[in-house]
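Hi R.,

Here's the chain you asked about this morning:
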Amino acid sequence: MSEPFSVRVTVRGYETDTQGHLNQAVYLNYGEHARWSLLHAAGISQARLVGRGVGPVALETTIRFRRELLAGDEVDITCAFEWTDGKTFRIRQEIRKLDGTLAAEVTAVGGLMDLEKRKLVTDPREVFKELAADPALFGL
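And the predicted structure, written out as tokens:
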């Protein structure tokens, strides 16, 4: 199995809370940033999704906080898709300091919504295969 897709981010001072560590809501933003970065790397833009009549939807997100992050810390955020036979998929993400320290784990359940019918598409894997220039980034 190949390494999961990863993007690097530096924690900015304005993202920290009164204790000086990364605000809990920003972890969601980092996860979302990594997911959109993966889509972009695979050749899928928001315009291509909308043009196909679909949009990604978040159905559930769980964050496990492991170690604090401080302003100036650099982190790598991974993004690995797991596919089922159904309408949904799981995305597993890790946020790690450059020394390998696991700061957080993000697990999300998502789907692709048909923007006209307002329902999940039956097989999101096929849509990603169709749209992606590099489906391997999605584990396809």
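The chain has a mean pLDDT of 96.

Let me know if you need anything else.
M.
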